[in-house]
Design brief:
With about 450 residues, the chain is mainly alpha-helical. The protein has 26 helices and no strands. It has helices at about 1-10, 30-45, 50-60, 65-80, 85-95, 100-115, 120-130, 135-145, 150-165, 170-180, 185-200, 200-210, 225-230, 235-245, 250-265, 270-280, 285-300, 305-315, 320-330, 335-350, 355-365, 370-385, 385-400, 405-415, 420-435, 440-450. Helix 18 (about 305-315) packs parallel to helix 20 (about 335-350) and helix 25 packs antiparallel against helix 26 (about 440-450). The chain is flat and about 80 Å long.
Length: about 450
C-alpha cells in the first residue's frame, strides 16, 4: 500500500503546471493582489504541488475571482485526482461563474466521495432542491443531518423540501427547532412564515415573514472553510464581515478587522465610522472619539458620524455635546429613523420625555420595523405615566422581533405594573426559558414573589 502511494506520487511529479494568474488586476484590492502574488510565487517554486494550486484557488474563491479559482482547482485536481475537495470547490466556482450544468455534475461526483462531510452533503442538497429534485435533496439533507447535531442549516434544508412538497405541518416543528437554536436565522423565519401562511395562521405568518426579510441560504463549513475564510482580504468582504461581527456583538473582532482595513484605506469614512462604533461598544471612548473625529474631518456632512458621536457623548455623560451632534444628525438626515432615535435618547437623558416621545413617534414612522424604537417608546411612556400605551408599544416590539429580549422584559414588567399578575407571571416563565440566569428575569421573579405570584 505504501509502495503504491509512493509510485502514484512519483507519477504526479511528472506533471508541472503554471500558477493561474488573476487576470485584470486594476480593480483588485491591493491586499488581495499581494496575497495572490505570495501564493503564485509558492506555486512557481513547486509547480507539481496540488496543495499549493488548491490554496491559490482558495484565495481566488474567497475574494470572488471565480474564473481563476475554477482553473486553479482544476490544476489541483489534475495533480491530485484522489482529493475530492478540489473538484468540490471547483463546482462552487463553476456555479458562481454561471456554468451550472458542469457545476452540478462535478458536485454530485465529489459529494459521492465526501459522504462523511456534512457541509458537502448540505450544499448538494441545496443544489438538488434548486434543480427540483426533491427526493435527492431530501436524501442529501438527511445524510448531512446524520453527521451533525441538528444544525439549523440542515433542519431548514429538510423543512424546505417539506414546504416544496406541501407538507407544511411537518416543516413547522423543524423550523421552530432551527429558530430555537439560532433566533437570528432569517431563512428559518421566512420558511416558517410561508408554512404558517399555507396553514392559514396569518398573524403568525406575517410576524415570521417580517423576521425573514432578505433571507439567504447559509451553507455549512467544509474541511477547507477555515483556510478559505482566512483569505478574505478584499475591502468589500472585510467591511461586510465587520458589519456581521458588529451584529453578533463581536466588537473586538470587528474593531481589529476595521483597523486592518484602515491600514490600506486610512481616509475611508465608512470604515472609520464602523471602527468608531466598535470602539464605543468596547467602552474604548478615547479611541472612538479619535476615529470618529477623523471621519468628521473628512466629511462634516456625514450624518452617520454625527449619530455615532452623539451616542458616544451620551454614554460618556457629555449631554451638551451629545445634543449638538444629535441635532446636527437630524438636520442632515431628517428622514432617517436612527437620527431621530439617538436624538430622542439624548432628550430623554435630559429629562425631556415629551419631546423624546414626539421624536420617537417620528422614528417609528420612518423605520416602522425597528423593534428598538418601540421599546424606547414604551420606556418614555412609562416615564410619562402612560402605562397602557407603554404596554401597547411593547406588544408591537415583540410582534416585530420575538427574539429581542428587551421588548419581552418590558412587556412583562409593564404587564405586572398594570396589575395583570397572571399574564406577567406567564411572560416571566417564558423569559426564564429563553434567558435562564438573566438578572432582569431574576428581578421580575422577585417582584412577582413580593406580590404573591
Amino acid at each position: 500500500m505504501i509502495l503504491a502511494a509512493v509510485l502514484a506520487g512519483a507519477c504526479g511529479q511528472d506533471l508541472r503546471l503554471d500558477p493561474v494568474l488573476p487576470g485584470e488586476t486594476g480593480s483588485l484590492d491591493p491586499e488581495v493582489l499581494a496575497l495572490a502574488q505570495q501564493k503564485i510565487e509558492k506555486v512557481r517554486l513547486e509547480p507539481a504541488n496540488a496543495r499549493l494550486h488548491g490554496s491559490l484557488g482558495l484565495v481566488y474563491e474567497s475574494n470572488r475571482i471565480w474564473d481563476a479559482a475554477e482553473k486553479s482547482y482544476d490544476n489541483a485536481a489534475r495533480l491530485d485526482p484522489r482529493e475530492p475537495l478540489w473538484p468540490y470547490h471547483r463546482s462552487i466556482a463553476l456555479r458562481e461563474g454561471g456554468r451550472t450544468d458542469e457545476a452540478d455534475a462535478l458536485l454530485r461526483s465529489s459529494a459521492a466521495q465526501l459522504a462523511s462531510a456534512p457541509g458537502v452533503q448540505h450544499r448538494l442538497g441545496q443544489a438538488l432542491l434548486d434543480a427540483g429534485d426533491l427526493t435527492g435533496a431530501l436524501a442529501a439533507f438527511r445524510r448531512a443531518l446524520a453527521l451533525t447535531s441538528d444544525q439549523p442549516e440542515v433542519l431548514v434544508g429538510i423543512a424546505s423540501v417539506m414546504v416544496a412538497q406541501e407538507d407544511q405541518a411537518g416543516a413547522v416543528p423543524l423550523l421552530q427547532k432551527a429558530i430555537q437554536k439560532d433566533p437570528s436565522y432569517k431563512q428559518a423565519h421566512y420558511l416558517l412564515g410561508l408554512a404558517f401562511r399555507a396553514l392559514s395562521r396569518d398573524s403568525e405568518a406575517a410576524e415570521q415573514l417580517a423576521l425573514g426579510l432578505d433571507a439567504k441560504v447559509r451553507f455549512l463549513d467544509d474541511p477547507l472553510s477555515a483556510e478559505l475564510k482566512s483569505y478574505k482580504v478584499n475591502y468589500v468582504d472585510q467591511l461586510a464581515e465587520a458589519g456581521s461581527l458588529m451584529t453578533t456583538q463581536q466588537y473586538a473582532a470587528a474593531l481589529n478587522l476595521c483597523e486592518r482595513v484602515l491600514v490600506k484605506r486610512p481616509d475611508d469614512k465608512d470604515v472609520l465610522n464602523n471602527a468608531g462604533a466598535a470602539a464605543m461598544e468596547l467602552a474604548s471612548y478615547d479611541r472612538a472619539f479619535e476615529l470618529l473625529g477623523r471621519a468628521m474631518a473628512i466629511d462634516e456632512r456625514e450624518f452617520a458620524t454625527h449619530i455615532n458621536l452623539a451616542e458616544c457623548y451620551l454614554r460618556t455623560q457629555k449631554l451638551l455635546e451629545a445634543t449638538q451632534h444629535a441635532d446636527r444628525a437630524v438636520a442632515l438626515a431628517p428622514g432617517v429613523g436612527r437620527a431621530r432615535m439617538v436624538r430622542a435618547r439624548v432628550l430623554a437623558s435630559r429629562g425631556r420625555f415629551q419631546d423624546a416621545y414626539l421624536e420617537l413617534r417620528q422614528a417609528a414612522k420612518l423605520d416602522a420595523r425597528n423593534a428598538m424604537t418601540y421599546v424606547a417608546l414604551s420606556e418614555v411612556c412609562a416615564q410619562l405615566e402612560r402605562l397602557p400605551e407603554a404596554l401597547e408599544w411593547c406588544q408591537t416590539a415583540v410582534q416585530l422581533d420575538p427574539s429581542y429580549l428587551p421588548a419581552r422584559f418590558n412587556l412583562a414588567m409593564f404587564t405586572m405594573k398594570t396589575g395583570d399578575l397572571d399574564r406577567a407571571a406567564a411572560l416571566t416563565r417564558e423569559l426564564d426559558r429563553l434567558a435562564p440566569g438573566n438578572p432582569r428575569v431574576a428581578l421580575l421573579k422577585q417582584e412577582l414573589e413580593k406580590l404573591g405570584r
